[in-house]
Write a structure and sequence with these properties.
The protein is an alpha/beta fold and 481 residues long. It is built from 15 helices and 15 strands.
Amino acid sequence: MATELTRLTARAAVALLKRREISPLDLIEAAAARIAAVEPQVNALPTLCLDRARAHARRLMSGHDREAENEAGWLAGLPVAIKDLTDVAGVRTTYGSPIFKNHVPARSHPLVERIERKGAIVIAKSNTPEFGAGGNTFNAVFGRTLNPWNTALTCGGSTGGGAVALATGEVWLAQGSDHGGSLRGPATLCSVVGLRPSPGRVTRGTSNNLFSPLSVQGPMARNVPDLALALDAMAGFCPLDPLTFDAPAMSFSDAVARPPARLRIAFTANFGGALPVDRETRDICSQQVRRFEEAGCHVDEAFPDLGPVDEVFLALRSQHFVVDRELQLGTHRDQLKADIIWNTERGLQQTPSRLAWADRERAALFRRFAAFFEAYDVLVTPGAATPAWDVNLRAREVIDGVKLTNYIAGSGLTSAITLTSCPAVSVPCGFDSYARPVGLQIVAPPRGEARALHAAAMFEHISGLDRLLPIDPRPGTVPPG
C-alpha cells in the first residue's frame, strides 16, 4: 500500500484525499517508509518533522474545510518538502550554514503559511547549498545530496534536495527558490519539472531583497500538471511582499488542461555561441524540440541578443549578496564558504556607475525579449549546459572546451532568463549516452506562467518521460571528461 501511494501523482493523491479514500496520515506514513528506504543513499531530506506533520494532519482531518476543496490549489492534506532556506515554525532550519546549524524559527515563512492554509502538510526540509549559493547541493551541516539516476553525480543546486526527493518518491511536491537557476537546474539534472515564476507571482515574504526581482520562490514536481497544482497553492498577493499581485482568474491547473495550442516556438541551443553548452546536450535538445511539431506547433531556430549578459548578472547578483551577506561577512567570515565571500566582496568593490550600467543593460535586455515575444509564443533552450557531473566537484570547470571563471559561470542558460523577469519551466527531454537526464527550458513572456506550463505539458504528453518516475537510487560512476 505504501509503495502504491508514493507512486501516485500529486493530483491523484489529492483526488483520493478529497474523496476520503485515503487520509493525510496514510500519505505521511507512506512517505516516512519511502524516506527510510532511500534517504541513506541520497541525503535529500536531512531534517524530518513527521510528528509535527501527524499533528497537522489530525487537525486537518478533524476540522476539514469542505468549502476549501473547490479553491484552486487545495492540497487536502498532501505531504510536501520545504527547502532548508525557508522557515518552518518549530523545525530546524539551517540555510545550509554552520552559523545557523541549531536554528529553530518560531514562525514559518509566509509562503509556508499560505500553502499550509491550502492543505499542504510539511514533512521535511530539503537539502541546499550554503545560503543557496551554488549549482551543487552540499554544505558543512548535512553534506552532499546525490543524484538518484547515478549517485556518483551531483543533483544540481540549489533546490537539489527537493529534486531528488521527488525523483525518488519521497514526496509528491517540493517548494524551492530560484536566483540563477536553482529550481530549473536541479529539475533538469534529476529529470523532474521545476518552475521559476515571474517576480511577484509567489511571495518571498521575509527576504531583505524584497525589491529585487532576481530571487523568487516556486514549485517543483514530477510532472507538469502537478507543477501547476503546486503553483495554484502558492500564487497570490501577499501584504509582506511589495512585488506580489493577485492570482489569475483561470487557475494554472485549468490552463494546463486546455486542448493543445499551435504555438510559435523559437529554439536556440546556445544563443548563437554566446553561452557554452555541451555538444551532446545541444544535439539532444535540438532533436527533441522538434517533437513540438507533432502537436501542430511551428518551430524556428531563433533567439534574442543577450548582450553582455554574464557581466550584467554577476554585477546584480553581487549586489544581492551585499544586501544578504555583508553583515555576516563582518561577524562570521570564518564560517562562510569561499564562493559566498568572493561574491559578497565583489559586490562591495563595485562602483555605483557599474551598477547603473548593469541596470541599463538589464532594461535593454528586457526590451529585446519583449520585441522577440511579439513574433514567438515561447523560447526554448536546453535546461542546463551539461548533464550532471562529479558530485565531489563544487562546480563545473570546463563546458564545451570553455574554461569557466567562477562557480556560477556554467548557469548562463538559466541566469540570462532570470534577468528578463520571464517565467521558465524545465521539463525532461531525454538522456545522454551515459544515461544522465537532459531537459528543455521553456520561457514565456513576463507573467506568462500559464503559457509556459501549457507548452511544457504538451511536450511532456508527447515524450512520456514523466512516467519513468519515481525511481530507486542507482549507483554509478563518473563518466570520463
